[in-house]
Amino acid sequence: MKARNISKCLAMVILGTGLLYGQASRTWVSGVGDDANPCSRTAPCKTFAGAISKTALGGEIDALDPGGFGALTITKAITIDGGGGQVASVLVSGTNGITVQAGPADVVILRNLRINGIGSGLNGIQFNSGKDLNVENCYVFGFTQNGLNITLGQATQATVHVYNSVFKNNTGVGIRATNSVAPPVKVGVDHTEVAVDNIGVEAAAHSNVEINDSMISAAASSGISSDSPSADAIIGIGRSEVIANANGATASGGSVINTSDTVYAYNSGTAFNQAGGKIFTFGTNRAHDNGVLGTLQSPVVPQL
Questions:
Q1: pTM for this structure?
Q2: Alpha carbon distance 80, 85 (integer Å)
Q3: Residue 259's closest CA among 286, 231, 294, 230?
Q4: Secondary structure of residue 201 in the 3-state scheme
Q5: Which residues of the chain are under the pLDDT cut of 50?
Q6: Residue 2 exposed, middle or buried by CB count within 10 Å (0-12, 13-18, 19+)
Q7: Class of the 70-294 domain?
Q8: What are phi and psi for residue 30, nearest 5 degrees?
Q9: Cα–Cα–Cα angle for 26, 31, 32, nearest 5°?
Q10: What angle do CA 31, 33, 38 make, to 5 degrees?
């Protein structure tokens, strides 16, 4: 009898341990939650950092209601969704907002978030490693360095997709991409606004950036800059506006910018600034009211 009771107790302990440490495919955070909770819909956590350890690989953390959910370091495949139509905020001082340091097969999705550096945060989103980072419907502002800082050091291919987002009032670069080794990181920017920074979008060493249907404005230096010292950075831009910057597009260090169907206007310096690099045109851009027009190369031969 005593042995049977002991067995039952052991089973209950094992079951309780499994419930305590088990990970759910979907967890929840709330402005009135508690990180001691299991992060279920009826007992949500308070912060993203509190919820991530209780969320399974490839799972999702969702915000139930408005709140400030804190800085986060992501080391696995996951989706963070602030929910549409409410304020799901990450507000930080003296640090990065969200750091992605994931594995070579990990896909990370950041959706419906406001990431606020309040004038003293470092980088809004810091991407150090991973397979694919997606930034969707996010507003990143008030950082002393960069809005989205892609600084990889991996030999496996990485991609970044930015859609329907705003990067504004960041002291350094709105969106910056580099990899310390080949192959180049590939970045797509679509339906996005980048404004009031030093450089709007920068392709540095080992990076390819494609920008479409976007607006880049009020940069103190250049709206777009392709400036790898190893001459392997490429920016392609189409159906966009590059307006009211110092220089519109700057290509340096042997790097390249390809531009089509884009407006360059009210840039106080040079619209097309070839500073040791090359800017190719497909002949479908419109440029007016710039300080200096600058020069362009012959159209790029299409790749077949």
A1: 0.92
A2: 15
A3: 286
A4: strand
A5: 1, 6-20, 303-304
A6: exposed
A7: mainly beta
A8: -145, 150
A9: 100
A10: 145
